[in-house]
Amino acid sequence: MNGQTYPGSFNPLARSGDGIGDQVFGTLVDQNGKPVMSPDGSVHISVDADFSSLLPAGGKFFNITHFESRPVAMYLSELKPDAEGRLTIVSTRPTRRLPTASAFPTCSRPPTSTPTAPAPRASPPRTPRDASNASR
To answer: Which has the closest alpha carbon to 70: 100, 40, 42?
Structure first.
């Protein structure tokens, strides 16, 4: 950064099913914020984390995790660095959901945009009826 090299390592922030505050990370919720239930009656927790964005805003750090599930999900987490700069999750919550019919999979989506760095344009999601996108 700024011409300097810094040591780094991989440190998972959270795994699906981790309890963080009063939330269970990766729990799928409907447009009313209620947990989606699996056919066996258990709460459906996605194991399909596909992408995470690291976003600095207002002197804090945030992470948005995209889950490639049906219904799709995103979790917004506030992060806090320790004295060595390692980030940990302070709080997390699912983002506001749109009706299921209007959602599309987050697979291979660009990073979440910020007011100072908009996300690059992505092609619209393909549907089985849209043969014109078949070669993309």
So the answer is: 100
The encoded tokens of residue 18 equal 């981790």
pTM: 0.67
Amino acid 6 reads Y
- Beta-ladder partners of 62: 55, 78
Q: pLDDT tens, 49-89?
A: 888 889 999 999 999 998 888 788 889 999 999 998 889 99
How far, in Å, CA of 102 to CA of 116, rounded? 27
The structure tokens listed for 41 are 């009656």
pLDDT of 120 above 70: no
Distance CA 25, CA 67 (A): 11
